[in-house]
Write a structure and sequence with these properties.
The protein is α/β, with parallel strands linked by helices. Helices cover 44% and strands 13% of the residues. The chain has an 8-stranded mixed beta sheet with strand order 3-2-1-4-5-6-7-8, with helices on both faces.
């Protein structure tokens, strides 16, 4: 494979860490966007020691802070000629409603809007690299009930799982929109479900959410197994014809009927573009 430049969010633990390690073994130049620089540097040294690949880098990027996302994209644009793979891996579920630094509901901000900004600000590099954009979604998207008049969960009781499921639905919407809008410019996009992975995901949940996670624990797969579809999409040959699709276990799968809603998909794009305006490069 030719020299490949890969950018990944959420690489310091779980499937992100396994994905970064595996792609470094495949001689990708890996740029990890992390919130905790100490953990990021420790992981960088671990990956270099394990893979002998010295092209592993760490950049500060807090997905709950849109200025931080904009700054990280700016550093990449000043440092690189092109990006070939962008893996929007980071995400989270929050037991109580929280707000990001910019006042957005945290689940929406971290799982969707920050990655939406990152992609838009990296578009020149992504087009030059004929990039694959890989969005880590979830089967949780099937429980989504999006309310485009209340994306911030201010007018209705907050539900951690419904907010998370909606954000994961938005990952699929975003993927399809990218495939349609930028496919003619050489960019492909894929969404995936990694599986029910045994990581620290959901550790802060309380009540029924905590009980459900505890009951599911014996059926969970390892982070290494959960990373396999991300690794496949980042390294497989000749999959561009499947751009815009949703994957499970390295194969195309059918998402929910709601995930194919063109009106909702276009509404999300328009609202997201409006929200990122203060942080979007011109």
């Amino acid at each position: 494979m030719p020299f490949t430049t890969t950018v990944i969010t959420g690489a310091t633990s779980g499937i992100g860490k396994e994905t970064a390690m595996a792609l470094a073994k495949k001689d990708h130049a890996v740029y990890m966007l992390v919130r905790d620089m100490k953990r990021g540097e420790e992981l960088r040294q671990e990956i270099i020691a394990a893979t002998k690949n010295k092209n592993v880098y760490v950049l500060k990027c807090d997905l709950a802070d849109m200025e931080s996302v904009r700054d990280a994209a700016g550093i990449l644009k000043a440092s690189l000629m092109a990006v070939n793979i962008l893996i929007n891996n980071a995400g989270g579920i929050f037991a109580e409603r929280q707000e990001s630094k910019d006042g957005y509901e945290m689940t929406f901000a971290v799982n969707h809007l920050s990655h939406f900004l990152l992609v838009n600000n990296l578009l020149p590099l992504l087009q030059k690299g004929q990039a694959r954009i890989i969005n880590v979604s979830s089967e949780a998207h099937r429980m989504a009930k999006p309310n485009f008049n209340d994306l911030q969960w201010l007018k209705r009781p907050y539900s951690a799982w419904k907010a998370y499921g909606t954000a994961k639905l938005f990952n699929i919407y975003f993927t399809r929109s990218l495939a349609i809008k930028y496919g003619p410019k050489g960019i492909s996009a894929f969404a995936l479900h990694p599986g029910l992975v045994n990581t620290g995901f959901g550790i802060g949940l309380t009540g029924i959410g905590k009980i459900l996670m505890w009951l599911a624990r014996p059926f969970m797969i390892s982070a290494e197994s959960g990373a396999q579809t991300s690794i496949y999409l980042a390294s497989a040959i000749r999959i561009d014809a499947k751009s815009g699709k949703y994957f499970k276990n390295r194969h195309v799968a059918s998402p929910s009927a709601q995930a194919t809603n063109e009106t909702g998909r276009n509404r999300l794009w328009d609202l997201s573009m409006e929200m990122i305006k203060p942080f979007k490069d011109q």
